[in-house]
Amino acid sequence: MTSKKPERRSESANPNAPAQLESQHIHLIGVAGTGMGALAGLLVRRGHRVTGSDTAFHPPIGPALEAWGVETRPGWDPKNLEPAPDLVIVGNVSRRENPEARYAIDSGIPYDSMPGALERFFLSDRPSFVVAGTHGKTTTTSLTAFLLHALGGDPGFLVGGIPLDFGESFALGAPNAPFVIEGDEYDSAFFEKSPKFLRYAPDAAILTSAEYDHVDIYPDEESYLEAFRRFIALLPPDGYLIAFAGDPRVRELAKEARSAVYFYATDRDDTGGLAPDFLIAKGAAGQFELFGQGSLLGRGRTSLTGLHNLRNIAASLALVSLAGGVDLRAAIDAVTRFGGVKRRQELRGIAQGVRVYDDFAHHPTAVLETLQGLRELHPEGKLIAAFEPRSATASRKTHEADYPAAFAPATRTILAPVGRAEIAPEERLDREVIARAIRAAGGEAHVPQDEDETIQAILREVAPGDTIVLMSNGPFYGIHDRILAALTALDLRS
């Protein structure tokens, strides 16, 4: 599709940022974050000199920045801005009192937020395909970029994970090709307290879900949904909204779109009586069928598991065929070659017949979908779920009542310590409450007090044929390799 970006601007455009030049010196404050690091890499490949500061440069992002040609500077220090760069990009890790950011702003150095820079340098003059929603953004964004690339295109993309088919979380792509970006609803910067995706000026978008999250910045569900209303309002009349019909909140939000709306769902979803434009049905051994208006559109195969991934596939196929202009049947055939994303049901290794998976799940819905998918893939043996509540939402009581049911597919659940000690006790997730509810329903649950106890609980009575899944949106102590090493050392002979 053609983009009309030069004629319209995001509602959050920052007047303090300079006009785009052919080549600039751009400095990023908070460069070692996943998104900021990827932005730094994109800017280097665009031909800019890029410097960046942060408090630490741990692997994998630290070495990656060096490999990409980013000049790194330790700590928050106004001296990092000497000589003055053409533009400073302030990450949302930076607080208002950050001395480096404060110096840039007070000295009159042009500055912008991360999403503002993405809009300015990569989205303003080419089609922007944005994948938004509470769940499934990373996989759906990665698959969309992969399908466009596999069918002869050269899309740009920025993903909140690492697609295994590309090996990096970003690509510049061809100048006129679509840019596929994960649309985060989290806020942009301390001076721009609005959702990131409001700066992405979408020509086409996917809305996967709208289930209350990010309780640290959205005080209630209504304020959370309002962010998505504002995002949908950015779609132009000749754009596309690909919306999940199985979420009643998404169905309501889609009514406000000026663009064309196409709904998708699986044949097992309750769509409230709405007939999806793209209906995907699960077959045996990874096979699926895609239907449209009662007609079979094609048959395909995928290595991804779970209904949630079938939904992701349907959404991506709808977007690339409608907005990307690719042949739908060819796209269906290409799905089988998609390798997935790191930390999304990623098999980290097998030791003595025990599989160890890593997954980013932290919201109850995502936890349930991950466990259901793995139980479907590995019906034999025990399914051992170890969960670290680390995100701002998961660490609080907000969804405490929903977690016991989310862990139902697991044989044994290990609830690691809450990852945010700063949360007040009266607001903090109560792991014992969840464990008691799991036990009351006939399940097994453990509440370890530290890292060592967590590992011991995971390995307790493990046997060949079992599956371990480690779920956290953080590093989870880095226990993945320790678990595999411990399994290798155990005598699991029956």
Q: What is the subunit arrangement here?
A: single chain
Give the biggest beta sheet: 10 strands, mixed
Q: What is the topology, as strand order, of the major beta sheet?
A: 8-7-9-6-12-13-14-15-16-17
Q: Taking Cα atoms only, what radius of gyration do you get, to the nearest Å?
A: 23 Å
The N- and C-terminal alpha carbons lie at a distance of 60 Å
CATH class of the largest domain: Alpha Beta
Report the sheet-strand fraction: 15-25%
Tell me the CATH superfamily of the largest domain. Answer: Mur-like, catalytic domain
User: How many domains, as an integer?
Assistant: 3
Helix content: 25-40%
Rough shape? globular
Mind sketching the topology for me?
Layout: E1 25-29, H1 34-45, E2 49-54, H2 61-68, E3 71-74, E4 87-90, H3 99-106, E5 111-113, H4 114-123, E6 128-132, H5 137-150, E7 156-158, E8 170-171, E9 179-183, E10 187-189, E11 192-195, E12 204-207, H6 221-233, E13 240-244, H7 248-254, E14 260-266, E15 278-282, E16 287-292, E17 295-301, H8 307-322, H9 328-335, E18 346-351, E19 354-359, H10 364-377, E20 383-387, H11 403-406, E21 412-415, H12 431-440, E22 444-446, H13 451-459, E23 467-471, H14 479-489
Parallel strand pairs: 1-2, 1-4, 2-3, 4-5, 6-9, 6-12, 7-9, 12-13, 13-14, 14-15, 19-23, 20-21, 20-23, 21-22
Antiparallel strand pairs: 7-8, 10-11, 15-16, 16-17, 18-19
